[in-house]
Amino acid sequence: MARERLYLFDTTLRDGAQTNGVDFTLNDKLAIAGMLADLGIDYVEGGYPGANLTDTELFADERKLATTFTAFGMTRRPGRSTSNDPGLAALLDAKADAICFVAKSWDYHVRVALETSPEENLASIRDSVRAAKAKGREVLLDCEHFFDGYKADPRFALACAKAAYDEGARWVVLCDTNGGALPHEVERIVGEVVRVIPGDHVGIHAHNDTEQAVANSLAAVRAGARQIQGTLNGLGERCGNANLVSIIPTLKLKAEFADRFEIGVSDAQLAKLAHASHTLDEMLNRAPDRHAPYVGESAFATKAGIHASAIMKEPKTYEHVPPERVGNRRKLLVSDQAGKSNVLAELDRIGLKVDKDDARIARLLEVVKEREALGYAYEAADASFELLARRVLGKVPNYFDVEKFDVNVEQRENAVGKRVTVSLAVVKVKVGGETLISAAEGNGPVNALDLALRKDLGKYQSYISAIELTDYRVRILNGGTEAVTRVLIESTDELGERWTTVGVSPNIIDASFQALMDSIVYKLVRSGAPA
Ligand SMILES: [Zn+2]
Description:
This protein is α/β, with parallel strands linked by helices. Helix content is about 40%, strand content about 25%. It has 20 helices and 18 strands. It has helices at about 25-40, 55-60, 85-95, 105-110, 120-135, 145-150, 155-165, 185-195, 215-225, 245-255, 255-260, 265-270, 275-285, 305-315, 340-350, 360-375, 380-390, 445-455, 460-465, 510-525, and strands at about 5, 5-10, 45, 70-75, 100-105, 140-145, 170-175, 200-205, 225-230, 260, 300, 330, 400-415, 420-430, 435-440, 470-480, 480-490, 500-505. The strands form five sheets. An eight-stranded parallel barrel has the order 2-3-4-5-6-7-8-9, surrounded by six helices. β7 (about 170-175), α8 (about 185-195) and β8 (about 200-205) form a beta-alpha-beta unit. α8 runs parallel beside α9 and α18 (about 445-455) runs parallel beside α20. It is elongated and about 80 Å long. The termini are far apart. The mean pLDDT is about 90. The structure holds zinc ion.
């Protein structure tokens, strides 16, 4: 049986850009649009030309993307003609393949926010769709507050949608703008809409205010809608938009959808999903959500020893889909509950070949347990685990020695009489036969120590110069007689690889130093630096 085509519409660059703290540059937008096209997303909405400089520039040139590149904007203003509306003119001039208009579909909003009549709202929809069609664009209409509008006055809400469809809009998109609709309501209302407008012209745009944007999108598809709008990682204002990173694998891997529908994302593209999700976080300088469905670091992580041995035998026993399908991987956590099978599986994953009866495995397990009792957390710090394992198995070269370091924190008045606190670190390192002394100033003692440590490692400098610290987390652990500090440091490199290391000590500088050292040594091991 031929499967029906479902279309994906990404609005990360438009609706997603409404997120607090998110500010895409033109280059960011082009990079993300390219990445979305590579993923096989049918429509990429780039922004709102005329609303800000970046979006105007984005649509000033042909972008030649392998997707239907879409500009967003308002229908003509009430009381104006299409030829006398500068906002509409900017939209019609945009170098885009498609135009997505937004229009009111809730009578209450038409009266109160737009201060116009229902008839004028319908005329504005018809005129705008006609003008964009005349310009040769594919046209979509986002019906704002459709579900609330439909509950208040179904005839008017439907009339707005129908006006666009009758005028030749390719898609009429039903928006749950305030995110308050529930899946059973969406399914019922979409079911009623598709009796009037064919489902292969109906889209869903859900927000996540009751954490059901994904469920609402799937409910709309079940009821007949054939376009889904959403964003990467569910980016979007308030609680976000429907998360395409969760929707795509569900459509591809769950039989209810996979048997009936086909999407533009191939299996090979699906395997790039985790990477795309993490890349967006990186561009936003955010740590990826470890618990994100499908793509999170913990999405296929298992802790207890008994589960780990079952997973190694038969992954399906504990996994709802194979992690590699979405570009993720199985992870067996090493913790104080760990059995030997966990450790063996981790060693296998990091590529350390050890016989399962090797006596050193028991030794490694013992060391892990001892150190976890002291406060080390290897579940979160797999790079430190890898180093520990390699050390116990006798495989980490001694690249360099830190002979001493000195960190100094000083509060004083600066040249303009303002009180400032500055930190200075001096590190003495021995690399081969050479002694190197580096000093650096930082905005805090750990920052200064990090800068000094990575300033000059002699022959190893080229391996570590691209390391960046992307996250630094401190926890005070209350165990035994004195509190200790646990520091977790996340680092990345020029290849986009990301690793986490751990340090524990009663002294925060010392704990940070351990984690920094592990990060550098891990990078040297990974790069195959000569001893
Ligand atoms: Zn929205």
